[in-house]
Amino acid sequence: MFTALASLLILFVLIRLAISAWRYFTAWLGRGKLLRWATDEIEEQYALGIRTYISNMEAWRAEADHFWQRSKRPRLTRDQRDAIHDAISQARSCYLNLLKLSWYQIVIIFLIASVIGLVIEQIWMLITAGLLESRPGLVWGPFSPLYGLGAVLLTVICWELRKHHVGDMTIFLVSAVVGGLLEQFAGWTMETLFDAQSWTYIYLPDHITQWVAWRFLFFWGLIGLVWARYVMPELLYRIGMPTTNRQVIFVGLLTVYLVVDIFMTFACFTRKTARDEGIPPSTPFEEWVDENFTDSFIAGRFQNLAVGEEQQEARGYNGKN
Description:
This is ABC transporter permease. By secondary structure, the chain is mostly helical.
């Protein structure tokens, strides 16, 4: 009992330290040399003013709640709180209208969605199937790129739909189509290029193709609707536009890391396919890949992935990278 409580306490402290370190790091990134080429200077100042206004409104609301708790005086009425909420929402909408979607936001969204998607998938498979296995989609890091790519596609498309003020049904249908095409493309590419399978819907009664099923199209549509209306605006507001050199350099380094990680993953599975066909390495780089990304490495890291002959013995639906 004591060990369990001590472990929880240590975990709590580590989480608090990690959050504090992240806040300090992001604040440090924001104190770098200001950019003047990132956005139009007038729009930049206007956008900065909006963010300051929102921060002040949120701080004032929190201070009012704290004052009520200490003084026991009547707190803000519902109408007052609704007015503050509406003012903040309108200000955020104005800020998003000024925001220019670029590689900076795309890379951050890809990273966040890749990590969160992998975590949710791990939890889902543990709860529904009792499976606890390694399920990343890249050779380095806790990333599942299909979720990252899905989030990026939904962001780019829903961002355009937002400009045209389309209805919920349109967003739902477009998101369902985007999700279905993404699953079809990813599944077909894995099987065609690497003779690999990470998931299959062939045993589901509502499957459309091996990698697409009606029930998951519905989920894609629902996810897209929630993403467009709630998650994307909040996330893009939190990310904002780059204002310092430090921010651009940091995200640039993350981009380079992702490119290398994706390239090495393709190299890893390209050589795996070649080894299965009895093709020896022809360059020093291919020799290095064979030495460092062996069949045992692939089997241990991508435990939900069926490659080559294993694909014939694959289970039904077992998630996706």
